[in-house]
Amino acid sequence: xxxxxxxxxxxxxxxxxxxxxxxxxxxxxxxxxxxxxxxxxxxxxxxxxxxxxxxxxxxxxxxxxxxxxxxxxxxxxxxxxxxxxxxxxxxxxxxxxxxxxxxxxxx
Amino acid sequence: xxxxxxxxxxxxxxxxxxxxxxxxxxxxxxxxxxxxxxxxxxxxxxxxxxxxxxxxxxxxxxxxxxxxxxxxxxxxxxxxxxxxxxxxxxxxxxxxxxxxxxxxxxxxxxxxxxxxxxxxxxxxxxxxxxxxxxxxxxxxxxxxxxxxxxxxxxxxxxxxxxxxxxxxxxxxxxxxxxxxxxxxxxxxxxxxxxxxxxxxxxxxxxxxxxxxxxxxxxxxxxxxxxxxxxxxxxxxxxxxxxxxxxxxxxxxxxxxxxxxxxxxxxxxxxxxxxxxxxxxxxxxxxxxxxxxxxxxxxxxxxxxxxxxxxxxxxxxxxxxxxxxxxxxxxxxxxxxxxxxxxxxxxxxxxxxxxxxxxxxxxxxxxxxxxxxxxxxxxxxxxxxxxxxxxxxxxxxxxxxxxxxxxxxxxxxxxx
Lengths: 107, 415
Fold this sequence. Notes:
- The complex is a heterodimer.
- By secondary structure, chain A is an alpha+beta fold.
- Chain A has two helices and six strands.
- Chain A has one domain (3-99): Folate-binding superfamily (Folate-binding fold), CATH 3.30.2270.10.
- In chain A, a hairpin with a 6-residue loop joins β1 and β2.
- Chain A is globular, with a radius of gyration of 15 Å.
- Chain B has helices at 6-14, 42-55, 87-101, 103-107, 125-141, 150-156, 183-196, 240-247, 309-322, 371-384, 397-401, 407-411; strands at 32-38, 60-63, 79-80, 118-122, 146-148, 171-175, 179-180, 200-202, 207-213, 216-222, 225-234, 253-263, 273-276, 281-285, 291-301, 331-342, 348-351, 357-361.
- By secondary structure, chain B is of the alpha/beta class.
- In chain B, strands 1, 2, 8, 9, 10, 11, 17 and 18 form an eight-stranded mixed beta sheet that branches.
- Chain B has twelve helices and 18 strands.
């Protein structure tokens, strides 16, 4: 079972206690944006094979949104971090790079 | 190709079965083809078959990274139905269902199509209204369905508890000509027919890159070298996002795991397909006697072909409530497939930003039932370069333009 540590309450939470909320760090486009930007924001997803950054919510616990870095190929969890950020923390990216030297990095 | 027939069985029986041919050839790839189809699952093979049958295009290669029919084609619960709400969906799924009716004869391969009837239970008042609406829509679309009473449900499926404590059965949407087919046979039958038309099915050959020049595709790089093509068809289900990335564009879909499981074999107990969307589980009985059970998708991206265990428990719990007699059955096998799910839960049969490249993807949790219709529509798109009436509404541009074919709202759940 997938287990993520909630960065707020520190609980090691099973996936039954969590809710997946999709791709992380999506740039929001508001009124007045082009059709292309709206399409990208609303529908187009990275859907990578390998390292993926996601939003999760600790629904069965503290209720807070947070981020997680996870491999979609092995379900390995690289780490979790709070929601108040526009991109993954550098330490986490460095740690993933050290594990997977051929990973193309966060884009 | 030697035809299969009762006479052939008698002939081979008389000579110790020494005369059976291989069902399809396994050739080395040629330098170049008119059309390269990536993905030898049901949809890819059906696309190839109808390219040859309807359009006479037979200089075709079907490339598969694993073995043919080894992805979702061999992992589904084999349900065939066409009782959709939206017109474009009903049209393509009904086309597919009608092609299943004669597929064994068309392919000279027994796909064991069994129109045993598909029943979708209404267990809330919301579902009753939804399915009555679908039944009316189906009447207008020419799809034969009806909304039936709980008593009729009980007559058709005596083992069902229609007075369950949480969700009593309030009725059902009944499609008498829906049913099941042998999923492997569908892939094998198409493969045999395609090979017979001179098409090359190349297994254990993974596409690693897409060659392009002047905004058009010129070929693919594979683990068996470069293969040139005039047209490229991407029909790779859960791997669509990955391959689209290699071709240089992104898709409005994400890949998630969908699970199924089978019980130990038992005597015949249920001769229709039952789907219970409120409690989320569906069940039919295979010819071997196993109960074939399907559940829900995980909520997160996944390429591992394994799903989360708690979904198994949720699915089985829901079905035990509906069919109390299965409570002491052992479950024998459980597996997962990677399905590509779009925002509106409808598929994509479309041109792409790369010239002469076409994609057939996004069938999500409903791919098997649509195989012949999908192949029919995709073949027309690849042959003519423009979608025909079946595929017209399923373009990628619908997400930009907001013309959704919103089956997710229509069904209330994944389907």
